[in-house]
Design brief:
Blueprint lengths: L18 E2 L8 E7 L9 E8 L6 E6 L7 E3 L3 E4 L8 E9 L2 E9 L8 E4 L7 E4 L9 E9 L6 E8 L6 E7 L2 E6 L2 E6 L8 E8 L4 E6 L2 E2 L3 E2 L10 E5 L18 E9 L5 H9 L15 E4 L3 E3 L1
Antiparallel strand pairs: 1-8, 2-3, 3-6, 4-5, 4-7, 7-8, 9-21, 9-23, 10-20, 10-22, 11-16, 11-21, 12-13, 12-20, 13-14, 14-15, 16-17, 17-18, 17-19
């Protein structure tokens, strides 16, 4: 890898908050920011570990899973790689130390740019789906999920299923019928009624915040009236995330009568709530804020009969 200062940076598939491990450092937190937001192979990438709540001197240690020695250690919060390539894929850790305590964040690097491509689910099944290979690094008090789908199904079908060992419908976006979406958090749901779309693609975004329980729903950039769900709930982060099937058990329990057939694309998840203006921009263009995972850098594995097509 050369000198430590040229160690690898990872693109932001998981934007992780740093939480203090010592009680005295409870207010110290950080976010990992990448530049550019969308990485390009064989171009430079910069990863910075921005700390708030502690203005004093700090030491940053960057490590990669599978490599025993630190990639970089010192006062710099910047990790730089001059020419990104596939050998740099993996999981990275930023450890921050200060007189107030320590904090740790992990960060997954994937370079699967799916711009102008869609997943095609050609037929109903109980064994065909897309498995997301990224998840939040901490429990969620806020989140946003967005995706685009195109189907002629009239029966219930699952679009986005996020299951933990404790709750199979921890997060679930299900289209119950052509004029109704169901959105679940922690096993409970609210319904959003929509007009008949007559075979048009649908871009859906939904946000949830724990302190108020407020759910916001957008269809093709248009907001629906807000509703309430699971106030004070905490979404677990030890999850399996699946597209195209509903998990009735952790990582499985699929039902052919709830499977998706059609096309799906532009799948994103954030660990915070997007604003109305950000959602409207996302309907027409790429996001300006980095997600946990997103379509321009999408860590996935297909199972069964699912095809990635232009």
């Amino acid at each position: 890898m050369g000198t430590p200062r040229f160690c690898l940076l990872s693109f932001l598939v998981g934007l992780c908050s740093l939480s203090a491990t010592d009680g005295a450092a409870a207010k110290m937190s950080a976010q990992i920011q990448s530049s550019p937001i969308v990485p390009s192979m064989y171009h430079s990438l910069v990863l910075s570990c921005k700390v708030s709540g502690d203005p004093g001197p700090k030491e940053f240690v960057w490590e990669k899973k599978g490599i025993h020695k630190p990639l970089q250690k010192g006062p710099s919060d910047i990790l730089l790689f001059r020419s990104l390539n596939k050998t740099h894929l993996g999981t990275y850790t930023c450890k921050v130390s200060s007189p107030q305590g320590t904090a740790v964040a992990t960060y997954n690097l994937w370079i699967d740019d799916l711009k102008y491509r869609v997943f095609v689910f050609p037929q109903a099944s109980n064994d065909s789906y897309v498995l997301l290979q990224a998840r939040p690094e901490h429990p969620l008090l806020n989140f946003t999920v967005c995706l685009r789908s195109y189907t002629d199904l009239t029966r219930p079908h699952s679009l986005f299923s996020y299951a933990t060992k404790e709750q199979d419908n921890e997060i679930l976006l299900l289209k119950f019928k052509p004029t109704e979406y169901h959105f679940y958090v922690g096993g409970k749901y609210v319904a959003f009624h929509i007009p008949e779309n007559y075979m048009d693609p649908e871009h859906v975004c939904v946000t949830w915040e724990s302190p108020s329980g407020i759910v916001r729903f957008w269809l093709n950039g248009r907001p629906w009236p807000r509703k309430g769900l699971q106030k004070g709930y905490v979404v677990g982060n030890e999850a399996v995330v699946v597209l195209g099937q509903e998990q009735d058990a952790y990582g499985g329990g699929f039902d052919v009568l709830q499977s998706f057939t059609g096309e799906m694309s532009d799948v994103y998840m954030w660990d915070f709530g997007l604003s109305d203006s950000e959602v409207k921009m996302l309907h027409y263009s790429e996001p300006e804020v980095a997600p946990i995972f997103g379509w321009r850098n999408f860590p996935y594995k297909t199972e069964g009969e699912v095809y990635l097509m232009s």
